[in-house]
Amino acid sequence: MSLVIRSAELDDLDGLTELMYEYIVGFYKKPRPATEKVHHLIQMLLEKQNGVQFVAIQNGKLVGFATLFFTFSTMKADKYTVMNDLFVIEQYRDTEVELQLFLECQKYTQDHEFAHMSWITGTDNTRAQRFFDKMGSMKGDWVNYSII
């Protein structure tokens, strides 16, 4: 089985859009955003100014993606990455595909001299929590809030 992990490219637009809908609507059960909005987000990430997106390709098929956004920490007075997404289709969860996508995000963070990488996951996503624990990560001290 040949596995390729690389930065997303314009040629990935259709497959990545399909995967993002599977992630947003299928996995997280959230409303389907307009295709134009998803394409705009992908295009912005292709520019690598505010973030970057990686894809996992197994035997020529797009099977996962990960997204890093760039931001800053006042407490560290430094820049850091937020891994906003780490998604692989079900049959590739808990496999080398998921591991390599995560490691690519970690490597990008280190190679580009970000202070650290952070992320959140759903409280009910215990499978992902086990994966992150296995990767040596620590649960943070902060409570996550949002407003609509």
From TrEMBL:
<dbReference type="InterPro" id="IPR016181">
    <property type="entry name" value="Acyl_CoA_acyltransferase"/>
</dbReference>
<dbReference type="Pfam" id="PF00583">
    <property type="entry name" value="Acetyltransf_1"/>
</dbReference>
<dbReference type="InterPro" id="IPR000182">
    <property type="entry name" value="GNAT_dom"/>
</dbReference>
<keyword id="KW-0808">Transferase</keyword>
<feature type="domain" description="N-acetyltransferase">
    <location>
        <begin position="3"/>
        <end position="148"/>
    </location>
</feature>
<keyword id="KW-0012">Acyltransferase</keyword>
<dbReference type="InterPro" id="IPR051016">
    <property type="entry name" value="Diverse_Substrate_AcTransf"/>
</dbReference>
<protein>
    <submittedName>
        <fullName>GNAT family N-acetyltransferase</fullName>
    </submittedName>
</protein>
